[in-house]
Protein 1
Amino acid sequence: MPTSPIVGIAASSEDAELFADVVRRAGGSPLALSQDSAGSGVSALVLAAEGDAAHLALAKAALDKDMPLLAIGGGLHTLNLALGGAQATPVEGHGPEGEESSFHRIYIAPGSKLAAVVGSGGFVRVNSRHEKGIREVDKSPLLLASSYSLEDGKIEALESPDHAWVIGVQFRPERRLEIPPHFDRLFQSLVERVLYA
C-alpha cells in the first residue's frame, strides 16, 4: 500500500486547519508551511496565500518541479503572478458578508481539467470570499481559464496545459458545507496524482 504523500499547505493560520482536515480526508499528510519554509519533502502543494514574495517563490519552485499544485482563493492570484500574469483587481459582491461567505454561480468549461476532476462541467453555485479577481486581460498567457463567474465574467478557475496537475480555483472548496460535495475531488485528485504518477 502506498504511503501517504506529504502535502504542503501555504495558507493563513486561521484557514490552515480547514485545509489540513480536507487533505487528511483525501489520504494525504498535511504539512503547514511557514513563509520561510522551502517545502522540502513535500510531494504536492495547496497554495491558499496571496502573492507575497515567499509564496510567489514557493509557487515558482513547485511549477519548476512540475509538482501537483492546487491554488485556492488568493493562491489563484499567486499562481497567475508566478506565470507572468497581472495583479488581481478589486471586485464587488464577491467578498464575505461579515463572517459568512457570499455565493454566486459559475460556469465550468466541459473538457477542462477542472471538469474532469470534479466529474462535470456546466453551471454550479459556489461560495465566494474574495475581494479581488482576475479578468481575461490579467490572465497569464501560460494558463487556461476553465471557469467564469456568471455575474461579472471574472475568471473563477485556471489550469496549466504545460504541467501535469496544476489547477487554481477562486472559490473555497475547503469550506465543505458551502459547496457541492463533488469538489472534495480536487483534494483527492491532488493526492492521487502523487500516489499514482
Note: The mean pLDDT is 90.
Protein 2
Amino acid sequence: MATTAPDFDFETPRPREAPFWYRLYRRLEEYALLMRLDRPIGIYLLLWPVLWALWIAGDGRPDPKVLVVFVAGVLVMRSAGCIINDFVDRDLDPQVKRTRARPLAARRVTPGEALALFALLVILALWLVLRLDWFTVALSVIGAVIAVSYPFFKRFFPLPQLYLGVAFSWGVPMAFAAQTGGLPRVAWVLFIATMLWVAVYDTLYAMVDREDDLRIGVKSSAILFADMDRLIVAAMQAMMLFALLLAGRSMQFGRWYYAGLAAAGVLFVWQQWLIRKRDPDGCLRAFLNNNYAGMVIFIGVLMEYVYRR
C-alpha cells in the first residue's frame, strides 16, 4: 500500500543568528545614536560658552585639569541630557517627522536601557566634578537638576527655550567657580549673554518643528512668538552681543575681542536672512550656523590673551 510522507519529516532551516560581536556593535550603535554622538552640534554649542568662561576666568591660561574636566563634562552631560529628553518624549517623538527615527521613539531601545545608560553617564559626570572643589560640586548639582527637569517644561511652560538657556548656561558660573573659587560680576554677565544665545538658537530649532508642535500640543518660543519670531530673535541677538560687549569692557579687552563680536554679528545677520521665509530647512541651517558664532567669539577671546602677552 502506498503511503504519503508526513509533512513534518523535514524542518525549514532557522535563520542563522548574527555573531555576538555584531549584535554588540549594533547595540552600541543604538546607544551612540541615543546620546546623539552622530550629531555633535549640541556638544559644540554647549562647549563654546564654557571655553569663553574658562579663558576669561583663567586670564588666558585655564588650569589644565579644570579644562579637561569641563570638556569631558560637556560631552557626558550633553549625552545624558539627550537621553532623558528622549525618555520623557518617547511617546511624542513618533508623531514628529524629525524625531520619529530616534532609538526610543522607534522602539529600538527600551526605556529601561535608556535609564540605565543615563544613570551610568550621571555617575561618570559626578566622578568628573568630584575632581574639583566643593563649591563647584554644589553648583553642578543645581545644574543637573535644571537639566533633568527641562524636558517636562515643554508640557506647560510657554517659553521652555528660556529654561533651556539657564540649563545650557550653567557651565559658565561653574567654570568661574572652578577656576577662581568665586563668582565675579563678569561671570553673571557672560551667563546672561549665554542664556540669551541659547534662547536664540533653540527658537530657530523650534521653528523647524512648529507645525508638529502645534498639532501635538508641545510648548515652544516659536509658537509663542508667532509672526513676531524673527523680530524677537533679532532683539535677543542684539542683547546677547551687548552683554558680551559689557563683559569685554569689564575685562578691558581690545580689538581682537571686538572683532570676534563683529564677526558673530555678521553671522546673526546671515541667520536672519536664512529664516526670512520661515521654511524648516532655512531655520535648521540658521540653527547650525550658531556653532560658527560661538567659535568666532572664542577666537576673539583667545587672540586677545595671545596678543596681550
Note: The chain has one domain: 28-306.
Protein 3
Amino acid sequence: MKKILSIPLIGLLCFTACKKSDSSSNKTSSTFTATVNGKATTFNIISATLLRSQGANEKRMDIAGTSTDNSKRLIITLGIETYLGTGMTVKSYVLNPFPVDDPSTPNIDESLTTQGFTTYSTSLGNGSWFTDVYNELGSFAVTACDSAHTTITGTFQTTLKDLNTDTTVVSIKDGKLSNVKYTAMN
C-alpha cells in the first residue's frame, strides 16, 4: 500500500459522503456480530473513527471490536479517495490488502483496487495480542451512513489466508453492524 492514511480507489467521483439512514430510530449500537470459523461471535466496539486528510484527499474509517470472551480482536478498515464529508459512501468495498501484481500490466498499480482490509488478532492474555498478516479476499457493504448522527451500518464477509501456503486460517461470515457511532476526526 502506497499511503498510510487510507487505501485508494479508482474512479471515485462521488463527493457526497453519506446517505441518511433509513432507520426510524437513532439508537446506536456498541456491538457488532460475525460468524468466525463457524462460531457466532459478538464483538464489543472499542473504537470507531473516521480520519480525513485534506492534503492527501482521502479518508479512512476504522471499526475495532473485541469478542465478548476477549479472545479475538477484529478491526475493519475502509478507505476512499476524498476527504470531503464526515462519513463513508454507501457502496460495497473490496477487502484485499495484497492484490496480485500482474506483470503484463507494469503501468497499472493493482493496489488501487484495494478499498479496505481486516486486521484479526488473538489474545495472548494480560491485554497482549498476536496479530498476523494474512492474504485476504472479502467485502464490506456500507448499507447506510448518517453523517449528521455519525453512525454507520453494514455487512461484511472475508477469508484470511496464510501468505505462504494459501490455506484458510480465518473465515468470517455474516458480519453485521447496525448504527455504530463513530468519531469524525480532522
Note: Residues 31-185 form one domain.
Protein 4
Amino acid sequence: MAAITPELATAPKTTGAPLSYRLSRRVTEYARLARLDRPVGTWLLLWPALWALWIAGAGRPNPRVLVVFVLGVVVMRAAGCVINDFIDRDIDPYVRRTRDRPLAARRVTPAEALVLFVLLIAAAAYLVTRLDALTIKLACIGAALTVSYPFFKRFFPLPQLYLGISFGGWSVPMAFAAQTGELPRVGWVLYIAAVIWAAVYDTIYAMIDREDDLAIGVKSSAILFADLDRVMIGVMQLMMLYALTLVGRSLGFGNWYQGGVIAVGVLFAWQQWLIRARVPAACLRAFLNNQYVGLAVFVAILLQYLYG
C-alpha cells in the first residue's frame, strides 16, 4: 500500500452552523454512502428482477409483488453498498475512484455505517416478510451472499462472477418463487444470463481500477484476464446472448423478443468499441451503457407479451 498515498477528503467544519444545516450534511453523506446519488447501480440490479417478474407472471406480474421487489432492490442495493464500503474502508482511500467515498474520506464513522446498514437490512426484512415462505428462504440466502461479497475480492480471482451470483442475479429465482411458488428451469437459465451479465459489466468497471487494484493487492477479473480482458468480456457477452436465446426458445417467444436480443448484441458491440484502448473514461461509458442492455431485454419481454 505504500506505493499509493491516500488523499483523504474532509467535510467542511460545521461547528456553530444551524442544526438544520448539520442534519442536512449528515443525511447527504448517508445518501452518498448508500449510493442514492448514483442510481445506475440500482437499475442494473432491478432489470433482472423485472425480467423475471414479467416472465413468471406471464406478462402480468402481481402488483403487490412488483412493489415489494422494486423497493427491495433499492433497499438491498443501498445496504450492499454500505457494507461494502464498511469492509473496504481501509482500502478505498488508496483507489483513485473510491477515495472520496464518505467512509474512505472519514466523513462518516464506521459505527454510523453499521447503524445505517442494520436499518436498511431491517427494512428489507420487513419487505420480504410480505411474501411467501420460499421467497423468504431465498432472500436469506441472498442476504448472506451479498454480505460475503466484499471479502471475496481479497482472495477469489473472479469476484465479479461472485457479484453476479450473489447480488446481480439472485432476484431472478426470488421473483419466480414469489410469483409462481416454484423455481422452473427457465428461471434458472434467466438467472445464468443475469449472472453472466453482471460479470460482464463489473469486469468492464474493474478495468477502470486495474492499476490501483494491482498496487494494493485486490483481486479482480480485469487483473486475471490481463491483456485478454476484451476477449473474455466478448466471450461472456456471447454466453449471455445464448442464454437469453434459450429463454426465448423455452417460452416460445417470437420476433419482438428476438429483436430485443439483437439490440443487446448491438449494444455489446458498442461496448467492445468503447473499451478497445482500455481508457478509463471510455470503460466507464461502456459500463454505464449496460443500463440500456437491461432496458432492451425488458422492453423485448414487455412487447412480446403485449403483441406477441
Note: Residues 1-5 have pLDDT under 50 and may be disordered.
